Amino acid sequence: MPLDEPTVSFVGKLVPRKGVDDLIEAMGILARGPQGAPRLVMAGIGEMRPGLEARAAELGVAGKTIFLPETSEVPRLLRGIDIFVLPSLSEALSNSLMEAMASGCCPIASRVGGNPELIAHGENGLLFEKGDAAGLAEALRQVIGDSSYRQRLAAQSLRRIEDEFSLQ
After folding, report:
1. What is the bridge-based pairing of β-strands 65-68 and 83-86?
2. Non-local CB neighbours of 64 within 8 Å, separated by 6+ positions
3. 48 φ, ψ to 5°?
4. Contact indicator for 36, 30 with CB cutoff of 8 Å
5. Which of 29, 25, 64, 71 is nearest to 48 (CA)?
6. Edge-to-edge strand list for the sheet holding 65-68
7. What is the per-residue pLDDT across 32-69, written as a single tens digit (0 to 9) for each?
8. Where would you tag: which of 24, 60, 165, 166 has the fewest CB atoms within 10 A of its CB?
């Protein structure tokens, strides 16, 4: 794996409503492309973990996928992540998405609930339609293949959180 390869992450419950199976499917789509799949860190617990691990193996991305248990060190974990994905099928105003944005991650999220309130597509992150693994793979491809674009989206998302969602 190249040293400059970005790391993709999901942090949260591994349950159906979080759409994490779409993230694994998107990784499988990327694995079939010329660049291959990036490293994926999935941090959390939930009923879907065994099935996600099995599906990652079926898609040939198990070697690029790290499953971590639930952690209280989320801010520290996010500081080492380049791209945060929230593939939820339904969502309110996501604390995990705001935390990722505040940590300097490039955010990619499904177009549900409060996600479009946090992310202006193409300005401070990317949105895709819920349940659309191919759309998620395309969004990932865009930011994986263009580090300056990814860094600009990450910087704009951090600025958005600091300007509009700070504790002040």
Report:
1. unpaired
2. 1, 27, 31, 36, 37, 38, 39, 40
3. -85, -10
4. yes
5. 25
6. 65-68, 39-43, 7-11, 83-86, 106-110, 126-128
7. 999 899 999 999 999 999 999 999 999 999 999 999 98
8. 166
